[in-house]
Amino acid sequence: MDSLLEQIERGTLWQFPGGVHPPQQKSLSNQQPTARLPLPDKLVLPLKQHIGANGQLLVKEGDKVLKGQPLTKPTANWSLPVHASTSGEITAIKPLPSAHPSALPELSIVIAPDGNDTWCELNPVSNLHELSHKTLIDILHNAGIAGMGGAGFPTYIKADSHQPIEFLIVNGVECEPYITADDLLMREHAKEIVQGIEVMQQLLKPQRILIGIEDNKPEAIAAMQQASTHNTKILVRPIPTKYPSGGEKQLIRVLTSKEVPSAGIPADIGVLVQNVGTLFAISEAIYKGKPLIERVVTVTGNTIGKPQNVWALIGTEIKHLLDCQGFTPVSEQRVVMGGPMMGFTLPTVRIPVVKTTNCILAPDNQELAEPGDEKACIRCSACADACPQTLLPQQLQWFAKSKDYDKLEAYNLFDCIECGACSYVCPSEIPLVQYYRVAKAEIREQKLDQIKAERAKERFEARKERLEREQQERQNKHKRSTSRAAKPDAEKAKVADALTRVKQKQGDKSAVQAAIERAKAKKAADGSLEPDNSEVALERARRKEQARQYKEQKHSEDTAVNENSNESSSKKDAVAAAIARAKAKKAAQQAEQQSEPPQHAQASDSDAPKAGDDPRKAAVAAAIARAKAKKATQQAEQQSEPPQHAQASDSGVPKADDDPRKAAVAAAIARAKAKKAAQQAEQQSEPPQHAQVSDSGVPKADDDPRKAAVAAAIARAKAKKAAQAEQQSEPPQHAQASDSGVPKTDDDPRKAAVAAAIARAKAKKAAQQAEQQSEPQTEPAPQSEDKSDSEPQTPEQKRQAAIKAAVAKAKAKKQAKEQEGNDPS
Amino acid sequence: MTLFYALIALGSLALVFGLILGFAAVKYRVESNPIVDQVDAILPQTQCGQCGYPGCRPYAEAIANGDEINKCPPGGEATVKKLADLMGVEPKPLAGGEQAEPVKTVAYIREDECIGCTKCIQACPVDAIVGATRQMHTVIDDECTGCDLCVEPCPVDCIDMLPVEQTKQTWKWQLDAIAVKQID
Amino acid sequence: MKLSMASSPHNHNHKNLSRLMLTVIAACIPGIIAQCYFFGFGVIVQLLLALITASLSEALMLSIRKRPVWPALSDGSAWLTAVLLAISIPPLAPWWVIVIGTVFAIAMVKQLYGGLGFNLFNPAMAAYVLLLISFPVQMTSWTPVTSLLAQPLSLADQVTLIFFEYSANHQDLLSAMTSVDGTTMATPLDTLKTAVSQNFTVTEAMMGEQFTAFAGIGWMWVNLAFLVGGLFLLKAKVINWHIPVALLGTLAFCSAIGFIIAPGSHAGSLFHLLSGGTMLGAFFIATDPVSASTTNRGRLIYGACIGLLVYLIRNYGGYPDAVAFAVLIMNMAVPLIDHYTQPRTYGHGVAK
């Protein structure tokens, strides 16, 4: 028995099972030499055109770039740079439809060519043999070379194989019908391809290099044989034409009789496969210093006037290719990227050529008829006979239809290479491959979910353990009654703990390790003050259920502001409400005189949660709110009922201007209070009463205008919502509430804005006074919190806040102008 | 008399087979996971507590003790079906009649509005929120189970539950659902 | 411009279901011609009856099941079942035999199991067995070869016999089947079985005028005609070689052994291969994709088991022929066979 090497030397070929013989249609496009396209008017370069991570952007919008200049920098593992395919200006960097079956947007760089096609500086290599392994790998990496046969696997990783490579296989098979890109490349650039092969030879030192070419490409075979005569290690092997002999696994089987283990890679059996296009790109990168910026693309199909191969710059839109070759679409036109067996249809022609695009096929409806309706499977097993992977497609199909994922895996679904041979032969025209793809995607997702659930469980249990331990420690501490103030320690530890956790999560995601880390941190802290949460969670869950039950009423109940009011009798409330209304009316009249509608509207429209604890953000939010207010003013024209909270909000808003941070804090507190009140109010299910409650809260608000104002604003916003949700209960009250949010008067937004500014200044003064007065006010808890928050404020911060506020005001003014411009009146 | 023989014969046969069965049951017993573990493995581990139990494990225990299997909204109908298979009961619609297919969400903290109260951190069952007192908090979305538990405690309502966006990796070949604007 | 989306592959070999079914029906034509030649035109009448009944019952069942009628009907599978059943039963069997059989095949065996692709059993054979055990007389009343008939049957005779069970020249079916020597004749397999059971040797039994040197007159040619049709199907790649080869090979092998051991009581291989429904069964019945094994190794086992069962039942069973029984029995074993004969997937079982 001869050794494998001897058999291969003698030219023995092996068979792979299955396979089909679809009509070749190659002569359509391989009669003309490869053409060069005119420069397109824009290039779209997706950051990710390969398997692996994105590179990091090196350019920004408006940058001028030269041809061949890197646009991204490889960062993590498996990331490749992309290069400018021509010189020009970067007009946009945004997500655009990608060359993927889903066409989901991918971050892309758009270049407007300047027409000069100026190259950046290139560094060709002449002394290949003197270069170190690492230098060569780096050149391949930085040239952005990815497998050009289809998958787009980064070439530098393959070339840097740590496993010994016995056979380097050069894939020039091109078994897909229609495609002739590799055929033409081999005919026209055999010398360069062999150069590329020799680069790989130096890197990998294989025993033999086998060039597999289907025997339907005699010219290419001759060219490659001629170009490789000087190298005795290179063997050109014509192989019988059968689809999918160009599949990596099938080609390895045909040329070496070996089989790639399931879920393994060819390097596991000492084989490495490279596409001829990739090898050409390697040669260009080494000997000319050119990165991968163009490739041969077959443009073919019966709707193409001049089907042929073209050199297309990476990033050229398909539309440009089609236009240049004369495209006359038919109805129900399909445009396929790739071949008829494995290519995918494009939803739009505004999709760029990427590194893996080998063919654009635009067939008419006769040459590649749309498949008929799916019929019943008759279990004829024609699919199994055609399957090059010896799977049982028919069984897989049943399992895929019944979503029996365990069975699918037992029947080796993941060994399916999606070559389409089974669908091609299926007499019932079942889209088998489509079923497998969907099932694969489902299974992958389920597995991810499983992993995630597993991790969540671990984290949950680790946390529970931690909380228990903490409680234990706390109890111990109480027993010992150590007065050592552990608080700062604990706090610090908590932060450290959180930081460790973040790091943990960023680094490796091993939850176990995270738990250990956390445990360590906790030990160091000697206990923490975090409460046991499981009970709280339970209670919360219960409350949530309640919340769901009270869903409808919830909104209206939110209006409750003051806890005390809950207990007050409705009669008292009614009186209070009446007083409040009267006051509000008065306040409204004053407000009218002051013509400060934007401020009111701001309070009501800015919808409490928008105001944050950050002073700058508060200012910005205020500006936005003002813009909104203007709109509200216009709407408010016809509404006459004055808001009872007007006064309150007047005093509240200047406050925000005066000291935005304080105001924001106050707002937050107010919101918290409102929420708490609302939750309590939830239990009571009488909407009218709550409406009154919200009113009766108002007089109180006068005591502490600042706080109450904000609270009132929220309450009003909520009431408004509630009014919409529940108009039938207590209409007058709600009407009032909803009206209150939108003060009327001035219909000229600009005037309103100016007036608002004046009013703000006035209110500022008033608020300052109010603040002084409010210092010794009644409600102690929030007050003290307020104080504690405002205390650490330095003059510097104040100044900053003031500047921000000013900027925001300017912006608001601008907005107001715009608003005016937009306003038809 | 014949009847008597028949009874004896049948009785002894029954005895023999019973012994064989009993022996086999002891000898070839398959050590399977306790039912709680199996139930727990089916539950989605969001630890959301929507079932009324503090976490998935307690609910698994409750199911093993005979509680209803339809109290897990994050798992959706699929989980109910699997549980029904496992427990040998009829699948029933989800309690509360919520949507059958749960939409996967992650929590997102509007960071400008966060006041740093740590309430959500304490609520998170899987420690997926980081932050410290008076510092802005944020959610590690990889770890977030979308349980909603942090939304309620937030005093300033700055936490949103956002649906998880579809990516190429999670795309499921819905060819007919591709929505790309036709430019020309 | 609106582009249409489709899943790859975007090409198809244009061999669709109805073409497949019609090819199989076409491959039956040589056999049908041979049957007509040797047994008269009754088979044509049976074919027509079966086709009409099959179409009607398929349409009815589909509409009851609320499925689109025409797509399922036009795939030709019901017609193929009808053809296979019609050429399996005696040509002069009364009309209601074929009607009952076809309705049973389509409505019960096929549609009630979920329609094409879901039937566990071969519909034609299940119906055949139903008819055989329900109407044994009618189902075993094969007329002698026309050349041996006492009174030749005209087409009109045959039609009236089928529809009214008597004709101008014959009081009933039995008299129509009377042969030249005045005895009613059974099929060669039947004759042989009876002879052997009466302690005649096979050689003696085959001295009769309905036998040639190898097998029964007429039956031999009918089988050869089906062989031709089967070879055509193989050539057209409609069926795989595994089942017919395994079936015929096993049958030939077993009968050869039997013949060597006890030539007196066991007929030779050629007799078995060219008698009864052997060729029809091997190429047209056992290869029915829906109810046969789906893996290549499984098909070999499936075919071989049918061959063995046919031989056993023919020699030791109560019925003269056995293709239908053997196929039905093996239909039941298919899931098991399939489960244990999964091929090795590429890349599995190789050292990593």
UniProtKB/TrEMBL annotation, chain A:
Binding locations of [4Fe-4S] cluster 2: 387, 416, 419, 422
Sequence ranges of Polar residues compositional bias: 24-34, 640-650, 682-695
Signal sequence extent: none
Record membrane topology: Peripheral membrane protein
BP terms from Gene Ontology: electron transport chain
Listed GO CC annotations: plasma membrane
Binding site for [4Fe-4S] cluster 1: 377, 380, 383, 426
Listed Basic and acidic residues bias regions: 462-475, 486-495, 537-558, 607-617, 815-825
Residues of the 4Fe-4S ferredoxin-type domain: 367-397, 407-436
Coiled-coil regions listed: none
Cofactor, free-text remark: Binds 2 [4Fe-4S] clusters per subunit.
Gene3D superfamilies: 3.30.70.20, NADH-ubiquinone oxidoreductase 51kDa subunit (3.40.50.11540)
Family indicated by similarity: Belongs to the 4Fe4S bacterial-type ferredoxin family. RnfC subfamily.
Protein name (database record): Ion-translocating oxidoreductase complex subunit C
Protein source organism: Pseudoalteromonas byunsanensis
Upper taxonomic lineage: Bacteria, Pseudomonadati, Pseudomonadota, Gammaproteobacteria, Alteromonadales
TrEMBL record, chain B:
Localization per record: Cell inner membrane
Residues binding [4Fe-4S] cluster 1, per UniProt: 48, 51, 56, 72
Cofactor binding mode and count: Binds 3 [4Fe-4S] clusters.
Residues involved in [4Fe-4S] cluster 3 binding: 124, 144, 147, 150
Name of the protein described by the UniProt record: Ion-translocating oxidoreductase complex subunit B
EC id: 7.-.-.-
Domain 4Fe-4S: start-end pairs: 31-89
Superkingdom of the source species: Bacteria
Record-linked InterPro entries: 4Fe-4S_dom, 4Fe4S_Fe-S-bd, 4Fe4S_Fe_S_CS, Elect_transpt_cplx_RnfB/RsxB, RnfB/RsxB_Proteobac, RnfB_subfamily
Region (Hydrophobic): 1-25
NCBIfam families: PRK05113.1, rnfB
Any one GO molecular function term: 4 iron, 4 sulfur cluster binding
GO term, biological process aspect, one: electron transport chain
Species: Pseudoalteromonas byunsanensis
Keywords for the protein's UniProt record, in alphabetical order: 4Fe-4S, Cell inner membrane, Cell membrane, Electron transport, Iron, Iron-sulfur, Membrane, Metal-binding, Repeat, Translocase, Transport
Similarity comment: family membership: Belongs to the 4Fe4S bacterial-type ferredoxin family. RnfB subfamily.
Lineage: Bacteria, Pseudomonadati, Pseudomonadota, Gammaproteobacteria, Alteromonadales
A cellular component annotation (GO) from this entry: plasma membrane
PANTHER family per UniProt: ION-TRANSLOCATING OXIDOREDUCTASE COMPLEX SUBUNIT B (PTHR42859:SF3), OXIDOREDUCTASE (PTHR42859)
Keyword Membrane: yes
Subunit structure: The complex is composed of six subunits: RnfA, RnfB, RnfC, RnfD, RnfE and RnfG.
Record function comment: Part of a membrane-bound complex that couples electron transfer with translocation of ions across the membrane.
Cofactors: [4Fe-4S] cluster
Chain sites annotated for binding [4Fe-4S] cluster 2: 114, 117, 120, 154
TrEMBL record, chain C:
Cofactor: FMN
Modified residue annotations for FMN phosphoryl threonine: 187
Annotated GO biological process: electron transport chain; transmembrane transport
Enzyme Commission identifier(s): 7.-.-.-
Membrane topology: Multi-pass membrane protein
Domain of life: Bacteria
UniProt GO cellular component terms: plasma membrane
UniProt KW Cell membrane keyword: yes
Keywords: Cell inner membrane, Cell membrane, Electron transport, Flavoprotein, FMN, Membrane, Phosphoprotein, Translocase, Transmembrane, Transmembrane helix, Transport
Pfam families with a match to the protein in the record: NQR2_RnfD_RnfE
InterPro entries named in the record: NqrB/RnfD, RnfD_bac
Transmembrane intervals: 20-38, 44-62, 69-89, 120-139, 211-234, 241-262, 268-287, 299-316, 322-340
Record keyword rRNA processing present: no
Subcellular location: Cell inner membrane
Family in the record: Belongs to the NqrB/RnfD family.
Assembly and interaction partners: The complex is composed of six subunits: RnfA, RnfB, RnfC, RnfD, RnfE and RnfG.
Free-text function comment from the UniProt entry: Part of a membrane-bound complex that couples electron transfer with translocation of ions across the membrane.
Protein's recorded name: Ion-translocating oxidoreductase complex subunit D
Phylogenetic lineage: Bacteria, Pseudomonadati, Pseudomonadota, Gammaproteobacteria, Alteromonadales
Gene name in the database record: rnfD
